[in-house]
Write a structure and sequence with these properties.
11 helices, 6 strands, 2 domains
């Protein structure tokens, strides 16, 4: 069964990150009194950000009664504000090497391109606008974590993209991402190919235990897999 839709993550997969998401998360948490190291934050970056914050609080808050919905949303609001400010002002915001050409090549071959992300729509919109991806026509559909009831590893974002693309069979879909939770999302959605890239939060050794169908170092390799 041939691939009709390829779903790509954003930061670390198609968009150059340079660890800014982790730094911003750390700053947002620190603003509310929580000092959390990178090695704890990095593996959680693919999650819906509200979920990632909740997981970190449960690791570092010794008084469970303090972990309230209000606190979680306050930290999230701080993160969103800092992230939007960064993406609006960053001089070097850019797509990862070969990302745009790969997405355009897929579309030229008649394959639809979806983007999903652990970011909320307001952050994703700034990135899309700065990179001029709508004007360039590099993707067909975008679904963000705040537009579904459950984010990764739940397959709801991929299922929503399938609906938008008119794809009835999960085996006609490939998922591409840079984190453990991207891999599990693709597996839970029943994607034919679950392709992990080493351009983001995880190394090849860090990705192997999650058993994606492929691990690649260059996003352009997606073309050799799905075409």
């Amino acid at each position: 069964m041939s691939i009709k839709l390829v779903v790509f993550d954003m930061a670390g997969t198609t968009v150059k990150d340079e660890n800014k998401v982790t730094e911003t998360f750390k700053s947002a948490l620190q603003a509310h009194g929580y000092i959390i190291p990178d090695h704890i934050i990095n593996p959680l970056m693919g999650y819906k950000k509200i979920v990632a914050i909740t997981k970190m609080l449960h690791l570092y808050e010794t008084d469970p009664s303090r972990i309230t919905t209000d606190l979680i949303h306050q930290i999230h609001e701080t993160f969103v504000g800092l992230m939007i400010e960064y993406y609006e002002q960053a001089d070097f915001l850019e797509a990862l090497p070969n990302a745009e050409s790969t997405l355009l090549s897929l579309k030229k071959a008649g394959i639809q391109v979806g983007i999903n992300t652990g970011f909320s729509r307001d952050i994703a919109a700034v990135i899309i606008n700065r990179l001029k991806w709508r004007e360039k026509g590099v993707f067909d559909y975008l679904v963000c974590s705040d537009e579904v009831a459950e984010g990764r590893p739940n397959p709801e974002m991929i299922n929503r993209l399938r609906q938008l693309a008119g794809i009835s069979e999960a085996e006609e879909v490939a998922k591409v991402g840079d984190t453990e939770v991207d891999i599990r999302e693709g597996q839970n959605a029943g994607c034919k190919y679950v392709i992990a890239v080493t351009t983001g939060a995880f190394s090849r050794a860090g990705l192997e235990p999650y058993q994606p169908t492929h691990i690649i170092d260059d996003i352009a390799e997606v073309l050799h897999i799905v075409l």
